[in-house]
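How a chain folds remains the central question behind the approach discussed here. For one protein, we set the task of working out the structure tokens from the amino acid sequence alone. The sequence in question and its structure tokens are set out directly beneath this paragraph.

_____
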Amino acid sequence: MKNKVIAAAVSICTLFSLSACGTTTTNDDSTTTAANNGGDAAVTTAADNGDADNGDASAETVTLTLWGAEEDQALLADLVEGFKAQYPDQTFDIKIGVESESTAKDTVLTDITAAADVFAFANDQLNDLVAAGALLDLNGEVSQVLPAYTGSTLDEILAKNSEGSVAACQKDGSTYAFPMGGGNNYFLYYDSTKVSEEQAQTWEGLLKAANDSGTKVGMTYASGWYNASFFLGAGFIADMNEDGTTVIDWNGTSADGYTGIDVVKGMSAIATDSGFMAIADGDISNQIASGALCAVVSGTWDAGAAQEAFGDGYAATKLPTYTCAGDQVQMSCFSGFKLMGVNAYSKNTGWAVLLAEYLTNEASQTARFEARQLAPTNLNAAEADAVKSNIAIAASAAQDVYGSVQNVGGKYWDPTATFGQMIANGELASADDAAIQSALDTMVEGVCAPVE
């Protein structure tokens, strides 16, 4: 009886239709619904009236395309086989393609109807994908497929992940993706043979250790990804408006009472110290390998390079504090997440949702950590001893407490990079307050420019 109820539920046209229903054909083994999904995409799913625990039984082959990063291809192939094994009565044709999370949005929006049914992407792309109608609203009627086949509602599935990762999947009260992995932030690597644990907590301590050992502390200033850490830590904001423009208050006074001028003076004091190295954006790995650094600000992607360079001294921790208007202010960071979304134009939306959920569940996130050291967002997976003992991931998690989900418009990047380069060059170190304010105003004006 339970199986019949599930089969009946899945066969309802509105379960998988996002708008008007078309034709429905039913036999003993399958139910196929043709729906007007965002214009011209049909949604098809097979309903099980056999063993509910084994999923759908259908004579028809379910065809899906999955996109993921090049370095994930072997892992995805294994996970897809696991997904197929979960539904042994259903025949699948799942093709796996290469698409970096960092470029997924651009490729998908080139032709949404030709894009993959399921694809991974970085969370800062979600707004543009939603605005273009490319992502399926998982809170819609199709969400009924989750309790029917996984035994958990969408809310229950999301609750298994960290709050920040769930927030990164949502917009205007709707959910458009599943959290796949975290750790997309930055923190401090250091060589504990040259920098003590106490020194690693402040920029003053770090710079003293660098000068004493004849090395440098490295950080990229000429990037809005990294230099935001000083402003966010002091209570300033950088967020995106509905029209795609950025709201930013770095040229004013923060909620914590600091001015943008205060922050710039703190950054300049660091940049002009002989123990500091301003690293060009994209050159951090090379500088770590050079052996010139005793500490560096970077993320989990440089864990291997830092471990090799620092050897037995390899250590990592949250970002340090810096001096701002006489106070020690904890640096914040932009935190990011890797997400898995479903194409709103998929012809097999129900199955695509089930595949996306499977690829991001606890077991899959654990496998992803083991294969690529990607930090799990799943709370149970994150509690595993192997995860908690991983030096880079532990530091990333410690920094996430002070993190802010990146959500800025496209105009944000160039002005903040130029501004950071000015500070790195020492151009504002001896400037008066009026000159610093003018530079801040120019930067904010560029960031807030209308979207063309």
